[in-house]
Amino acid sequence: MYFFTSDQHFSHNNIISYCKRPFKTIEEHDHEIIKRHNEVVYPNDFVVHGGDFTLKHGKTFAQSIINQLNGNHIFLRGSHDYWIDKSAHERWERKIDGQYIVVDHYAGRVWPRSYYGSWQLHGHSHGNLPPIGLQYDIGVDNNDFYPVSFTQLKTIFEDKNK
Questions:
Q1: Could you tell me the residue range of the domain that residue 53 belongs to?
Q2: Residue 119 is part of a domain; what is its CATH number?
Q3: pTM for the full model?
Q4: 135-137 sheet: strands from edge to edge
């Protein structure tokens, strides 16, 4: 199973007030996002992270969080990912069950195969940007702090086309 998420902002003290996240402390914030992730993601699942995983520099902190998360992880570089190599990809493209998917940190006006039914999954906007076409904000602020499964996305896009 594939899951998609973005903008966790682990250990980013100001994200609670910036995004009005319902947590009292950053420790509670981080704990709850890890808990919700592990409620739906199993060890053999794949998780595509669309950027802004943590603002902390260096890989040690990021790895300590990754070690607590179920799944096999694919990380894209967002606007605040100082821990990840500068050569890390900013886009992920794949066909899953016949559906072409493009994951970017930023929402686009057009994206690869956008005129041919591809989905663009993005973060960065923290649930504040209305989608255009077959586009969806996979950021935690838009999804009750859970990753979104491919199955959920199929339902979301089917409902959009009704």
A1: 2-160
A2: 3.60.21.10
A3: 0.95
A4: 91-96, 99-104, 119-122, 135-137
